[in-house]
Amino acid sequence: MKILVPVKRVIDYNVKPRVKADGSGVDLANVKMSMNPFDEIAVEEAIRLKEAGAAEEVIAVSIGPAKAQETLRTALAMGADRAILVETDAEVEPLAVAKILKAIAEAEEPGIVMLGKQAIDDDSNQTGQMLAALMGRPQGTFASKVAIDGDHVSVTREVDGGLETVKLALPAIVTTDLRLNEPRYASLPNIMKAKKKPLDTKTPDDFGVDVAPRLKTTHVGEPPVRQAGEIVPDVDTLVAKLKSLGVA
C-alpha cells in the first residue's frame, strides 16, 4: 500500500508574521519558512505505518513555488521515499489543491491520503474534506490515533464531546491532529540521503487544474492591541466598575 502525504510550505510557527505596509498581505521577505506542523505529523504517521509493515511506500507532494523543494526534502529526510512538486507561484486555494491531489491520487493509487487537518497560514481546514468529496472516499478527520486493520483503517478522532472512533474502508482520506504523534528530527545522514531521492516536478496544467483564485483579499491588518488591565482595591469597586462599563 502507498501513502500519499501532501505537505505545505508556511511561515515557521516560531516566527511572528508581519503585515505589509499597504495591507495587501503578509510580508514573506527574509522570513523563515518550514513545513506546516500538522503536515509534519502526517509525514511522521505515514513513516510509522511503513515501519510497522502496513505500507510499502510514502510519497510526499507539495503545491507551491520552487522553494517548496526544501519542504519536500525535509519529508524525504524524515523517511518518505519520493516526492512530487507541483510548481506554481500562484496562491492556490483549497479547492484547487484538492483537485490537484485528486489527479495525483488517481495516478498513484494510494491506500491512504494522509494530510494535516489545516495549514497554520490560512487555517482553512478544507482540503482533506474537499478531496474526500471529489474522490468519493471515506474520511477520518482530526485523527489522534490511526490503526490499519486489513482492508480498513480505524481512526480515533477528536470531537467536542471527547473521542470518536470510525472504521473506514480503504482507500481513505485521513487528516491529522496535534496529539497523533511527535515528529522525529531528520538526522544528518538522512538529510544527505534525501538529496538523492527522486523528486518529480509538475505544474497545475499537467493535471488540467485552473488555480486562478476565486476569492480576493481586500485587506490584511494587525489584530487590535490588547489594552492594559486595571487593579481595583475591593469587590465593591470592581462591581461598580463593571456596571459603569455595562457588563454587569
UniProtKB/TrEMBL annotation:
Domain of life, source organism: Bacteria
GO terms assigned for molecular function: electron transfer activity
Taxonomic source organism: Altericroceibacterium indicum
GO terms under biological process: carboxylic acid catabolic process
Family annotation (PROSITE patterns): ETF_BETA
Protein family: Belongs to the ETF beta-subunit/FixA family.
Any Pfam family matching the protein: ETF
Function, in words: The electron transfer flavoprotein serves as a specific electron acceptor for other dehydrogenases. It transfers the electrons to the main respiratory chain via ETF-ubiquinone oxidoreductase (ETF dehydrogenase).
The Electron transfer flavoprotein alpha/beta-subunit N-terminal domain, residue ranges: 23-211
UniProt protein name: Electron transfer flavoprotein subunit beta
CDD domains in alphabetical order: ETF_beta (cd01714)
Subunit details: Heterodimer of an alpha and a beta subunit.
UniProt cofactor(s): AMP
Alphabetized UniProt keyword annotations: Electron transport, Transport
